[in-house]
Amino acid sequence: MFLWSLVFGAWSLCTAIATEPKRPNILFIMSDDHAAHAISAYGSQVNKTPNIDTIANDGMRFANCFAVNAICTPSRAAILTGKYSHKNGVTVFNRMDPDQWTVAKELQKAGYHTGMIGKWHLQSDPQGFDFWSILPGQGVYHDPQFITMGNKHKIDGYVTDIIADQTIDFLKNAPKDKPFFLMCHNKAPHRPWEPDDKHAKMYSDPIPEPPTFNDDYKNRATTASVATMRVDRDLKPHDLKQKPPAGLTDEGLKKWKYQRYMQDYLRCVASVDDNVGRILEFLDKSGLRDNTIVIYTSDQGFFLGDHDWFDKRFMYEESLRMPFMIRYPGHIQPGAFNDGMILNVDFAPTFLDYAGVKSPKEVQGRSIKPLLEGKTPGNWRKSMYYRYYDHPSEHMVNKHYGVRTDRYKLINFHDLHEWELFDLQRDPHELNSVYNDPKYATVVKDLKKELERLRKDLGDHDQWVDKPPRSVTTAEKP
Ligand code: CA
């Protein structure tokens, strides 16, 4: 009997090993404030990113990946929880309740070796990671402090290089008998855009100005002209790092400031690109390439002088859109492109899908695995819901929520009792709200209905809207 059990046991084990598909490693590389239009795979007019482009060339690039609340901390919480801000409790720069469900905890439970390296910015210590090494708060570019598994220490060097060093070390030391899930989060290219010496001389030729650089904010909600994120007015000496030449006209000064801002921003991006190259090279050399899903994204988009702005927050395209490219050799067609609408809350369920783990019911995103396999479901979303809460605060962007479809975007700046409607087909730069144009009356009516449907489906009943920012501390229990 004993012998039979032993033989049967060994046979079952072999069968299990033979039939269980090998679960992929997941390497999630995210930068901070890296706009899609500063990536050459997205047709950038201002720079080249050959290493980041490699991920798009080897896999799939998404044209319409959107953040549900386009600001650093809330986007990070949405990614980890697969939920909107009103469900995970991280609406502004508030502390994430670390006891709530996250994809890292779920993957760890499922046998993944989990890691988190770089910018965390959720105030509570990471949970669900076998290894973590994070920047305190925003972190700094040069000789940064890190908190590694609870211990604070300084590391000499440049933050983007150090994050890549730690990423490669994690990959070297990951146990061979488990798949890994690693979140590699760059600080760059976040403000104050401090490049390293290696890239400090790049972009000495003039950088092209965006088509909306001289936006006059006519036919728009009041907040567009009130927001304090103007290149010509709101960049500080620590952003510019040099005194402007004497004798410039107002226009000349604005142009000079744009060049200073973009030179440093793009130099920080160039370092990110180099380090993505180092990481990809390590995957190739170590034999990890084939069984590792690699993603490159950013926590939201960014204004690169568009509308004369820097920063993000608005539901407008440059800020709402996240770059998103993903490769998985043998599983995702190289050079593929997808214009389906995906959201940052979809990342968690996608990771779980690839790991063979079912997402809990309360997760609001949806796995994009079928899209990656070229089989977009017929009922895939045709609209997305957005909500921004951080007001009053730096940059003074008013609170708003809205809905975007493939053609239209309806935004409600509810504190101002002002609405905007953009016809993205006719006005891709969002310069002219047609909310009050009678020709769009039916569109407005239909979109308001859709907006309310989304609010109801997602359980947003204004539960956070009147709370003072930064006092929110607890996630809403599912
Ligand atoms: Ca950010």
CATH topology: Alkaline Phosphatase, subunit A
Low-confidence stretches: 1-18
CATH C-level name: Alpha Beta
Q: What does the radius of gyration come to? A: 23 Å
Total of DSSP H or I helical runs spanning 4+ residues: 13
DSSP helix fraction: 25-40%
Hetero ligands: calcium ion
Biggest beta sheet summary: 10 strands, mixed
Please tell me the overall pLDDT. Answer: 94
What's the order of the H and E elements? HEHEHHHEEEEHEHHHEHEEHHEEEEH
Count the E strands.
Answer: 14
| Total domains | 1
How would you portray this structure in words?
- With 478 residues, this protein is an alpha/beta fold.
- It has one domain (23-373): Alkaline Phosphatase, subunit A, CATH 3.40.720.10.
- 30% of the residues lie in helices and 18% in strands.
- It is built from 13 helices and 14 strands.
- The chain has helices at residues 2-19, 50-58, 72-81, 85-88, 103-109, 159-173, 222-226, 237-240, 250-286, 317-320, 347-355, 369-372, 441-457, and strands at residues 25-31, 60-66, 113-119, 131-135, 145-148, 151-154, 180-185, 292-298, 321-327, 336-343, 383-388, 400-405, 408-413, 418-423.
- It has a 10-stranded mixed beta sheet, with helices on both faces. A 4-stranded antiparallel beta sheet has the order 11-12-13-14, covered by helices on one side.
- Strand 13 and strand 14 (418-423) form a beta hairpin.
- The protein starts with a helix and ends in a 21-residue tail after the last helix.
- Calcium ion binds at residues 32-33, 72, 299-300.
